[in-house]
Amino acid sequence: MKKNILILTLLGGLSYLIFSSNAAGPGRTSGVDATGASGAGTGANQGCVNGGCHANMSASIAVTTELDSVGIPVSVYHPGMAYTIKISGTNNSTNNLPYFGFQLSCVQQNANNAGGSNTAGSPACVNAGTFGTLPTSVRSTTSSYFPETIIEHSAAIIATSGTGATGTTYVETIPWTAPAAGTGAVVIYGILNAVNHDATANGDYCNIANTLLIFEAGHAGVCN
Questions:
Q1: What gap in Å lies between CA 56 and CA 48, rounded to an integer?
Q2: Distance between CA atoms of 210 and 205, rounded to whole angstroms?
Q3: Alpha carbons within 13 A on the beta-carbon side of 162
Q4: Residue of 149, 152, 117, 111 whose CA lies nearest to 41
Q5: pLDDT per residue over 44-100, tens digit each?
Q6: pTM (global) more than 0.90
């Protein structure tokens, strides 16, 4: 009897860690787009707060996205060419944050996101380009709540450099093939969440990346 109780207690504790930490990514548990690409999660509910998992949006985590060609950032893509989308973060807080998670999405520019932002209920046009083989602990997901493909962590990712203290960096690179000719400009959205991995939201910090507008070589249209 005592053995059964011990097993149930251990299973209960494991379930708590899995579900309360939401380590498999918000898209998996509640179909949340925290990037802003779909217009979901604005104002007080912006970013990871909207997922109900992490409560602190903070400028203490500096986050950027970039489109790289052979390691060099570019602002223009050539149709059908292979690139890398990189999301990077730096811990500028005094919190110890040795792990991170993220989401990113790449969509066609349209009238709703032409200014680099989107409005709730006005989803971005369509997915732009295709993602290649994803790194370990990263997955692709979609949901009935948002039409675009979301690339996100499938488990907490260890920091790229540092041990979690101030100056620790978080970097993930995702292979991306540019869309067909005539697609026009695309917009890359991203968010990064640096965490202490204690299975609660306490002390974790997330921040939205700069919205990145990438033009098609020789074509700068906006879809309607």
A1: 8
A2: 16
A3: 20
A4: 117
A5: 344 554 544 555 788 899 999 999 999 999 999 999 999 999 999 999 999 999 999
A6: no
CA distance 125 to 128: 9
Provide the CB-side half-sphere exposure for 127 (13 A, CA): 16
What does the pLDDT read at residue 46? Answer: 44
109 contacts 222 by C-beta, under 8 angstroms: yes
Distance CA 29, CA 152 (A): 12
How far is residue 106 from each of residues 129, 176, 211, measured CA to CA in Å? Answer: 7, 9, 10
Residue 166: CATH number of its domain: 2.60.40.3880
144 inside domain: yes
The number of distinct structural domains making up the chain is 1
What is the tens place of the pLDDT at every residue in 116-131? 455 444 444 588 999 9
